[in-house]
Specification:
The protein is α/β, with parallel strands linked by helices. The chain has helices at 3-7, 11-35, 48-55, 77-83, 97-106, 122-128, 150-161, 176-181; strands spanning 65-69, 89-94, 112-116, 134-139, 162-172, 187-193, 200-206. It has a seven-stranded mixed beta sheet, with helices on both faces. A hairpin with a 6-residue loop joins strand 6 (187-193) and strand 7 (200-206). The N and C termini lie far apart (49 Å).
Length: 219
Amino acid sequence: MHSNDLAQLPLRQRIKTRAERTFGAWGVFVKGFVKHPRMVGSIVPSSERTIRKMLAPVDWQSVELFVEYGPGVGTFCRAVLDHLPRTATYIAIDTNPDFIRYLRKTVPDSRFIAVHGSAADVESIIAAHGFAHADYVLSGLPLSTLPDGIADQIASATYRALKPGRAFLVYQFTSFTAGLMQPYFDRIDRGMEAWNVPPAHLFWGWKSNADGSQARGHH
């Protein structure tokens, strides 16, 4: 958009566009936090150490579909795309249209699909893109602050959406998530990353294989 085009926009839209130009991902992220603090877990994006540790157990070579809830401005996107097979698909789901619009503009990768929607609808979303199940689902949604019942809906739907032997990868800033995941997942591994603002609690919820054997875990 040229400066002359910008001048034709309403004042609010001009301010928003200039903020995105000036502050890039940081500006969009802060704006999302201010508008929807219950839906954005932290005003500071996750650290590189958190990203590496969170994704460590992923068996990348076999991934066909990787799903992320609450991608924000794409803090995990590059790390996922760097490891994802060329034939795989990465679906990022967010309820914030500003984040989705930003991701569509800034992640020019044919494997990446940004979807404006709810994580609770993951089954219908992946079905709409031709998949029956996901290999891994990553979430940074602040599950403890979501409206009543939504976090349970997300956990239940995620378990159903996963292939056997695969995992729900969750990073949070409270230990609430362990109790939430317990009724739905066959095993939960836990970790911690202090080099994050704030320190992050990490969870890997595994779905057992079809024969009932335990999935390959983090530890």
